[in-house]
Amino acid sequence: MTTKKFRMEDVGLSKLKVEKNPKDVKQTEWKSVLPNEVYRVARESGTETPHTGGFNDHFEKGRYVCLCCGSELFNSDAKFWAGCGWPAFSESVGQDANIVRIVDRSHGMHRTEVRCKTCDAHLGHVFNDGPKETTGERYCINSVCMAFEKKD
Question: Among all residues, which ones are annotated catalytic?
Fold first, then answer.
């Protein structure tokens, strides 16, 4: 089963219909405007089931933005097939301009979590096993945390 690809206008801040700093949005407000799976992953640091994300096999030209707030995260040029079960990118927009890295020692592992710098949504993790010809990094991102804006 593949998860749905959401449009920015259907979820997140745009649905709140108020001008607000994304970091000031209360969890109850996020819960009211995000589908359950998006809320679980983005706001509760969950993980979507591997190989089910709508962007795992998606390779159109464009950009990927945070589903919660619309901040630009990745360009399609940085996307590659990693076979890990989630969309993989070799670099983020502007060298983590809209991403925060956090040490994650949950589940008995040592990883680096990536979150949206604008709204603090959990996006996924970054690993050092990406393509050596680019950055050597692999951003492993949950599809449900992103929207896609096609390049014309």
Answer: 140
Cβ partners under 8 Å of residue 132, min gap 6: none
Cα–Cα distance list, 65 to 47, 103, 132 (Å): 18, 23, 25
CB proximity list for 133: less than 8 A, separation 6 or greater: none
pLDDT tens for 75-123 read: 999 999 999 999 999 999 999 999 999 998 887 878 899 999 999 999 9
For the entire predicted model, the pTM comes to 0.89
- Is position 68 annotated in a ligand binding site? no
Q: What are the structural domains, with CATH classification, of the chain?
A: 8-150 (2.170.150.20)
Dihedral sign from CA coordinates of 9, 78, 57, 44: negative
Q: 84 a known binding residue?
A: no
3 state DSSP class of 116: strand
Residue 43 · residue 9 · CB < 8 Å: no
